Amino acid sequence: MHRFAGFSLSAPEDWRASVSGGTLTLAAPDQKRSAMVSWWFPDEPLLGYPDIVSHRKITVAGQAALWVHSRSGGRDRISVTLDKARADKKRWHLLFEVEPGARLDRGDPILDRLLTTLTLDGLASRPKADLPQALIATSERALPSAKVAGVQQESRLAEPVELGRIWLDRVSFEVPSGWVSHHDEGLNGIVMTRPDGGAEMVVSYWPEQLPMPVSEIVSMANTMVLGEPATRLDLRMGMVHALHLFLDEPRRDGSRLNILYRTTGEPLADRLPIFELLLASLDRGLTPPKGAAIYPALIATAAADPFKGLDMSELAASRAP
After folding, report:
1. What is the DSSP letter of 116?
2. Residue ranges of the domains in the chain?
3. At a CB cut-off of 8 Å and minimum separation 6, what does 168 contact?
4. What counts of helices (H) and strands (E) characterise the chain?
5. Contact (CB, 8 A) for 37 and 24
6. For strand 156-157 and strand 286-287, is the pairing parallel, antiparallel, or unpaired?
């Protein structure tokens, strides 16, 4: 059992442990697997990158966490990050890597062991009734059924217990607990407002005739949403910070799916976990159960590119590869 910085977990006896700064590194004798564990400050989002293969919600040590499987440079990685932070706003974070060429599509039994033996100091477990319906399920042997969150199927029925899930046309998502949501026909979408009114998230279809917010853009980058290429726009307008994610491919009517996160008087990074939860809940394959909240997306005019005519040359230096 390895104990470090307020947490403990168990790795195979022949794995070597080392500490550098605030990170515990565990490595297999043959160097084919390794894990780095630390308390991480969320200064950047966990989702929205083109190298992400899949992501889902799981439960670790009684806490909700985000699981992200990524692949770049021929190497597979899985990160697990708690949703809940300590008092210093740092969140428990584990990065598991395998040798180049090895795949983690079905998880890994060693990673299962690390997660199932994890204990945390100072973070009380949430009641089971409040946890997402997700299991620690990494290796093939740990997948009891296709009901584990994140297992992709071409078509599946949303369980009636998924309270707070809303359908906007074919796209569905979960409204964060405590947030107030309403359908805004003017925005052609759903607006979700934090209880204190200091932040909003919007899922909508941006019509092609509506100009893009070019003058307030701070940076632009390529990303992925719902497995499709998308454009990320970071904006700042006085005390308002906003993040737009636009699907690159428009619908037949020319509108594009847009996910907006906006705060007033506070940095975006302070509230990214709640936005990550929204992104993780986005789905196009769920069939709404009886009584679900379903809203149509209005039909716009002929297809066109809302980015057409905008001079993005000044943003070229900030555009991520």
Report:
1. H
2. 2-142, 156-318
3. 189, 190, 203, 204, 205, 295, 297
4. 2, 22
5. yes
6. parallel
Which distant-in-sequence residues (6+ apart) come within 8 Å of 295 by Cβ?
A: 166, 167, 168, 169, 183, 190
What is the predicted pLDDT for the residue at 260?
A: 92
Q: Closest by alpha carbon to 62, among 142, 129, 147?
A: 129
d(CA 273, CA 66): 9
CB 310 within 8 A of CB 208: no
The closest of 65, 40, 41, 63 to 124, measured between CA atoms, is 63
Tell which wins on pLDDT, 265 or 146: 265
* Segment 29-78, tens digit of pLDDT: 999 999 999 998 877 788 878 888 888 888 888 888 888 889 988 899 99
Is the pLDDT assigned to residue 2 strictly greater than 70? yes
Fold of 2-142: Protein Transport Mog1p; Chain A (3.40.1000)
How far are the Cα atoms of 19, 74, 119 from residue 26, in angstroms, in the given order?
A: 9, 21, 16
| Residue 298 pLDDT | 63
Per-residue confidence (pLDDT) for residue 214, from 0 to 100: 65
130 pLDDT above the threshold of 80: no
Q: What is the DSSP letter of 126?
A: P
| Amino acid at residue number 309 | G
Domains 2-142 and 156-318 share a fold: yes
CA-nearest of 80, 95, 84, 97 to 136 is 80
Local structure of 217: helix, strand or coil: strand
pLDDT at 87 over 60: yes
The per-residue pLDDT for 245 is 93
Going 176 to 180 to 182 to 186, the CA torsion angle's sign is negative
Report the distance separating Cα 172 and Cα 286, nearest Å.
Answer: 7
Please check whether the domain covering 156-318 is classified as CATH 1.20.120: no
Q: Rounded to whole angstroms, how far apart are CA atoms 210 and 44?
A: 29
